[in-house]
Write a structure and sequence with these properties.
The structure is a single chain. The chain is mainly α. Among the domains are: 61 residues, no CATH class; 99 residues, no CATH class. It has 14 helices and two strands; from the N terminus they run αααααααααααββααα. The chain has a two-stranded antiparallel ribbon. The longest helix is centred in the middle third of the chain and has 38 residues. The protein is elongated. The termini are far apart.
């Protein structure tokens, strides 16, 4: 019996391939991935034979094997080539893989959050980001999902509430909330790919990203305000060795570094080492404020806490991946703040 190909399926696969091909080519160019082009996709053929569609499928599978998670993350968070349709297509492309490993999970996890962030309104309130709303936004990719929560995912909501109680990045990173979320995700195994689980983890990651950006802005502003106050008190240098700077670091230079961090934390896909430096620099500045307070005028409780923390050594803050527009953590590259990572 001769197998007759599904013409409509071939046409749909080719349409998706033509949509994704420019993204993959641009990504390969950015990260110097040496991969021969796909001839018919390169030529923009409208109606190729089945053999060409199969060759295109193999081309994408090979490219997926070469693309690292951090490369996909960095590219999609900084390129202007993405659209709702393109993000949905690349997400569905990964979801439809017959076999999925930990790398596939990490890619899908990122793509879910990126697609949700791209589609959701830019001024969406945290209280509106419930499971029903996330499922609604992700429905074009995941379909209709039963929202009966399994017991093993209950800790996610507790972690979100704990994160919202954090007073600064040091609190958030020191609490282990992010690590607990990662461990729950990695320990899920194939259960992660259950539709409800993907919705729940998308919500968790989106809200964690928002908490991170709020606290990051808060810490940067506190450092800048503290440096200004120290200069008014006649302090012009700080011992910043715990933050991996010099023993006599000029406050003017520290202010310039903080201003550059405001841009860098939004422009780069990852900020592990600078993030640790930010947390430690906040502790250094708060401790200096406590020491330089006028006699008889008590320092703030936050400064006392920072001074105690400053004596305990270098922070062990883990790497946390972030990316967003300069002021809005939910804005997308090339689209501006009013369109809604």
């Amino acid at each position: 019996m001769t197998h007759t190909p599904d013409i409509s399926k071939l046409a749909e696969d080719w349409r998706e391939a033509r949509l994704l091909y420019p993204l993959y080519v641009a990504l390969a160019r950015e990260f110097v991935i040496d991969m021969p082009s796909c001839a018919d996709l390169e030529a923009g053929v409208d109606a190729p034979p089945q053999e060409s569609v199969e060759l295109a499928r193999q081309w994408f599978l090979e490219m997926d094997g070469r693309i690292q998670v951090h490369q996909l993350r960095q590219f999609l968070q900084t390129t202007s080539l993405t659209s709702d349709e393109a993000l949905r297509t690349i997400l569905v492309h990964h979801l439809h893989k017959a076999e999925r490993n930990d790398v596939d999970r990490d890619k899908i996890d990122f793509l879910l959050v990126q697609y949700f962030s791209h589609c959701a309104p830019s001024r969406l309130e945290d209280t509106d980001v419930d499971l029903e709303y996330v499922a609604q936004v992700l429905e074009p990719a995941l379909g209709t999902v039963d929202l009966t929560p399994p017991a093993w995912l209950k800790p996610l909501e507790e972690l979100v509430q704990a994160a919202n109680r954090s007073r600064g990045l040091a609190d958030l990173l020191g609490s282990g909330i992010l690590d607990k979320g990662r461990k729950l995700k990695t320990s899920a195994g194939q259960k992660y790919f259950e539709p409800f689980a993907m919705i729940a983890f998308t919500r968790f990651s989106f809200l964690m990203r928002r908490v991170f950006f709020r606290l990051m802005h808060q810490d940067l502003n506190a450092i800048l305000d503290g440096l200004r106050l120290l200069e008014e008190r006649g302090v012009s240098t700080l011992d910043c060795r715990r933050a991996q700077f010099g023993a006599d670091e000029p406050t003017v230079r520290l202010r310039m570094i903080c201003q550059s961090w405001k841009v860098m934390f939004h422009a780069e896909y990852s900020s592990g080492q600078p993030l640790r430096m930010l947390v430690d620099l906040r502790a250094v500045v708060d401790a200096a404020l406590a020491r330089s307070a006028k006699p008889g005028k008590p320092a703030s409780p936050r400064a006392h806490a920072a001074a105690a923390s400053a004596q305990s050594g270098t922070s062990s803050a883990p790497e946390f991946e972030v990316s967003a527009d300069h002021n809005d953590p939910d804005a997308k590259p090339g689209r501006g703040k009013n369109s809604v990572t």
